[in-house]
Amino acid sequence: MVAEARNIPDIQGTPDDRRIAIDQVGIKDIRYPIRVRDRSGEALPTVAHATMTVQLPEHYKGTHMSRFVQILHEHAAPLSADTFGAMLEAMLDRLEARAGRIQLAFPFFARKAAPVTGTESLLDYEVT
């Protein structure tokens, strides 16, 4: 039996009388393709492991987990310090959270020249 979405009650959206705040709720270690800007401004593709959590006040029962992935998708523009901050703000606004955390871990390759020959190669860094 398949239930239609319009017939499924939104439990998360109903009031919570217990008055228990949620310290941390979210998604953990989801793999997601991203693009990261290097120093030259070039957007380099990579795959991140993302953990995104929010703290919710006592009148919420929880949150819609799919919204975290939507936020990742909406901020798919090449990642930089500025866009990362905007993604955090969007998450807090969308989920009506008082605090939150985004952690991304991904490999990043940078061009480096050998000191003697000047030959360029790629060095990999694990960014967290």
Give a quick rundown of the structure:
The protein has 128 residues and is of the alpha+beta class. The protein is built from two helices and four strands; from the N terminus they run ββααββ.
What are the key terms here?
128 residues, single chain, 18% helix, 4-stranded antiparallel sheet, alpha+beta, Urate Oxidase
For the secondary structure, the number of strands is 4
How would you sum up the major sheet? 4 strands, antiparallel
CATH fold annotation: Urate Oxidase
The radius of gyration is: 19 Å
Describe this structure in words.
The N and C termini lie far apart (43 Å). The chain has 128 residues and is of the alpha+beta class. The mean pLDDT is 88. 18% of the residues lie in helices and 41% in strands. It has one domain: Urate Oxidase (Roll), CATH 3.10.270.10. It contains 2 helices and 4 strands, in the order E-E-H-H-E-E. The longest helix is centred in the C-terminal third of the chain and has 14 residues, at 81-94. The protein has a 4-stranded antiparallel β-sheet. It is elongated, with a radius of gyration of 19 Å.
